[in-house]
Amino acid sequence: MTGGPEPMSTAARAAIERELADLRKEREAVAVTLRGGGGDQTGDRVDQADELERGTELDRLDRRIADLEDRLKQADVAGAPSADVVGVGSTVTVRFADGDEQTVHIGEVAEMYDADMVTADSPLGSALMGSRAGDTVTYKAPDGPTSAVVVSLGGPGGAS
């Protein structure tokens, strides 16, 4: 990754938005269990420990929500993936050493429902980052070093 704002695939955006919705519901549920300041302070140590634990959980949820909101804002700033150079959010067709071709999506987080997702920090994803159509990339596979040719960006035939 470049260190700057990175584009985001539609699938990754949807996954983050789902996680945000779930976290906000969870945060609301935890928040209503916390006592307001100045209320009855006669609880025992177990009640106080439970209250402290819920406060810690609320802080964790707030941090994760802020992180995800920031990532969505960064993706908005980054705009659409480049049509010329492979980056996060790109769809790339590659031809492997055995002649097989596969279209993959370069993403930040693996989606369980997207079998064609390749994360940018995986061996293949890292090798593809910054490459262009026609480039040969080399990466470390389970069976040892291998290579693949970037056939096109934007899906089969290079369509965006």
Helix vs. strand class:
alpha+beta
User: What would the principal axes of the Cα set say about the shape?
Assistant: elongated
- Could you give the order of the helices and strands? HHEEEHEE
Oligomer: single chain
Task: Tell how many strands the DSSP assignment holds.
Answer: 5
Low-confidence spans: pLDDT under 50, at least 5 residues? 155-160
Q: What's the rounded overall pLDDT mean? A: 80
The biggest sheet, with number of strands, parallel, antiparallel or mixed sense and barrel status, is: 5 strands, mixed
Give the strand line-up of the largest sheet.
3-2-1-5-4
- Terminal CA distance reads 21 Å
Give the % helix. Answer: 25-40%
Number of spatially distinct domains:
2
Strand percentage lies at 15-25%
Number of helices: 3
Radius of gyration from the alpha-carbon trace, in angstroms: 22 Å
